[in-house]
Design brief:
Layout: E1 12-16, E2 19-23, E3 27-33, E4 39-45, H1 61-85, H2 94-103, H3 107-141, H4 149-168, H5 172-192, H6 199-203, H7 213-234, H8 242-251, H9 253-268, H10 276-289, H11 295-313, E5 326-327, H12 328-341, H13 346-357, E6 369-370, H14 372-386, H15 391-395, E7 397-400, E8 403-406, H16 416-426, E9 434-438, H17 444-453, E10 456-461, H18 464-476, E11 481-485, E12 496-501, H19 516-521, H20 535-544, E13 548-557, H21 563-571, E14 574-580, E15 586-593
Parallel strand pairs: 9-10, 9-12, 10-11, 12-13
Antiparallel strand pairs: 1-2, 2-3, 3-4, 5-6, 7-8, 13-15, 14-15
Helix pairs in contact: 1-3, 1-9, 3-4, 3-8, 4-7, 5-11, 7-9, 7-10, 12-13, 13-14, 16-17
């Protein structure tokens, strides 16, 4: 572990539930490992020191501001980390909904306010009021020692603080938080040593730090002894009234916090042996509030530190929000609103949520919570759909005749009309028949005919990419289908009982006028049918007789307005008929050899 040039940083941190918060000059970043083991990061911008009110940056005043700011921010982030790790399964009460609607108040803001207030009241009561009461009892019991009552009171305060740390360290969640506290310290120390931020380097650094909040709390208790003693000497009458003593403790707390902050900053700037006696007690207490972290915890701390470091170095570094577990109904409604605003069918949002979550579309209004990883996947797919990419390409599959077949930009998405083509083929196909599927694309037609009828099928296509997709589908459903990379019949010498095809049939001049979704994503090779859209039909019909057994049949799907022309191509050698699709459009040519 070769150390580089020492770097001083003002970045500080705080351990939270299953994570670490790091605070720099311009941003705050919190990294939390969720229940799936994924590291989640939330980052926000804060007002940099140079833009803050000058009054708030004055010595002592800045310490008071920093103390209360840390309390509020720390509580808020602690609550956020709990959301990431587990989430809240409770439905908002009627009162909460009324409060939000009537006064435009976020219930979580109310909870945060009372959380900070109660935390502050509890801390003052435990670490200041209780020691004052016990110190007063000591003064009554030992009148001759009243002169050292403030010292005794301070020692009681420190004893309560140590007892509080020892007690909380017995709790499993708090113990893990202390481990994350250690990871936070070790990461900051690693950076300040000029080392690369790797788990191996962080692991070798010490877990105590001069700027730790534990040391700050010790300084608060130390400074309180001095401040209360001086105040008591100036106003001796206060010492004789317990209520005045308690009131003075509370009123002087901001001054004590400000002085303690200045002492912490001053001592953190030097490693002189002269100040070591003042540092040692805080460092020893940190041995209690920090534990050795595991590798995963150090990864989390590094992630938070690196994010806030980027924010300090680059004003354009983006902020981000946690992805938290959320009710499926909420996720669905948000996505539907986004899709609607973008002009995309809202049902696509429901399909995405349903497929990722495994919940039926009819049950998406329920209260089941989606994991963060599921929401990640939903957001990823939704982002692709919002670019205009067809839903089937986004999902990577589509339903065709009851089969979930693989599709992507290498092949056309099978249309419902093609299912009708397959239905016509299945009326005559059987295990004894052989079938040739021309322009197979995704292999949808060949697959269904093979699986439903048991016929022996050969699928051809001129596109190597398309055949790769077809092969994947055949393998997926264990279909024994032979493929040939050829242009239509190619050099095939075999004859078949059935020829089926859905070839390209869009006129070349009409290609630019296609829907943007089709034009921008689906392969043009599978769409362009030449000047009049009939190029492939001419070639298929011309070679059909040579590749059909006696009594053989041919089935073709055609575009709107093409049925009569294609039928004429077959009339000389076939008995051809036109079949309408479910919409009443002439869609299918069915022809048998004369």
């Amino acid at each position: 572990m070769k150390e580089k040039k020492v770097k001083k940083t003002s970045i500080g941190g705080q351990a939270v539930l299953e994570g670490v918060m790091m605070r720099g000059k311009t941003g705050i970043a919190t990294a939390v490992r969720d229940s799936d083991g994924t590291i989640r990061i939330e980052a926000e911008r804060i007002t940099p020191p140079e833009k803050q009110n000058k009054f708030l940056k004055l010595p002592i005043i800045r310490g008071v501001v920093n103390f209360f700011s840390s309390l509020v921010v720390g509580t808020k982030i602690l609550m956020r980390s709990a959301e990431v790790y587990g989430g809240d399964d409770e439905e908002p009460s009627k009162f909460e909904k009324w409060l939000a609607k009537t006064f435009k108040i976020d219930v979580m803001d109310v909870v945060l306010f009372f959380g900070v207030a109660l935390g502050l009241v509890f801390s003052i009561a435990l670490f200041f009021i209780l020691p004052t009461i016990l110190g007063n009892l000591f003064g009554k019991a030992f009148p001759d020692l009243r002169v050292v009552r403030n010292l005794i009171e301070g020692l009681i305060r420190i004893a309560i603080f140590i007892g509080y740390i020892l007690f909380t360290s017995l709790l499993k969640d708090i113990k893990r938080t202390y481990m994350y506290h250690g990871a936070e310290h070790k990461t900051i120390t690693c950076y300040e040593k000029g080392l690369d931020l790797t788990v191996e380097n962080v692991k070798k650094c010490r877990r105590v730090h001069d700027r730790c909040g534990t040391t700050f709390m010790f300084f608060v208790m130390l400074v309180s002894i001095l401040v209360y003693s001086v105040f008591g000497a100036i106003f001796p009458q206060i010492n004789e009234n317990i209520w005045l003593r308690i009131l003075s403790r509370v009123v002087l707390l901001p001054l004590i916090a400000g002085l303690s902050y200045e002492l912490l900053k001053l001592l953190a700037k030097t490693d002189s042996p002269l100040v070591l006696p003042l540092k040692i007690p805080g460092l020893l207490l940190q041995k209690l509030t920090t534990k050795e972290p595991d590798d995963g915890m150090m990864e989390v701390a590094i992630a938070a530190f690196e994010k806030v470091l980027k924010m300090d170095e680059d004003p354009d570094e983006p902020v981000c929000k946690f992805v938290c577990p959320e009710k499926v109904s909420v996720v669905k409604d948000k996505l539907k609103k986004e899709f609607s605003a973008a002009g995309i069918d809202e049902s696509d949002a429901e399909w995405i949520v349903s497929i990722v979550s495994g919940i039926k579309r009819s049950e998406l209004s329920g209260d089941k919570k989606l994991k963060s990883s599921e929401i990640d996947k939903i957001n990823e797919l939704a982002a692709q759909r919002l670019t205009g990419k067809p839903l089937c390409y986004v999902l990577g599959n589509c339903d065709f005749y009851g089969y979930e077949i693989k599709v992507d930009e290498r092949v056309l998405i099978p249309r419902p009309e093609t299912e009708e083509l397959v239905s016509e083929v299945l009326k005559v196909a059987s295990p004894e028949k052989t079938v040739l599927d021309l322009c197979t694309g995704s292999g949808a037609i060949a697959l269904v005919v093979s699986k439903k009828s048991g016929a022996k099928v050969i699928a051809t296509d001129i596109s190597e990419d398309a055949l790769e997709v077809a092969k994947e589908n055949f393998k997926l459903f264990d279909a024994d289908i032979k493929t040939e990379l050829i242009d239509l019949y190619g050099d095939l010498q075999d004859k078949f009982d059935i020829i089926v095809s859905n070839p390209p049939y869009i006129k070349t001049d009409d290609m630019d006028g296609l829907d943007d979704v089709v034009k921008n994503y689906e392969p043009h090779l599978a769409l362009d049918g030449g000047a009049d859209g009939l190029d492939f039909y001419r070639r298929i019909c011309a070679g059909a007789k040579a590749h059909l057994n006696d009594g053989g049949m041919i089935f073709l799907e055609v575009g709107i307005g093409q049925a009569d022309d294609v039928k004429k191509m077959l009339d000389e050698e076939f008995n051809a008929e036109i079949i309408k699709d479910i919409s009443g459009v002439d869609r299918i040519i069915r022809a048998g050899l004369k």
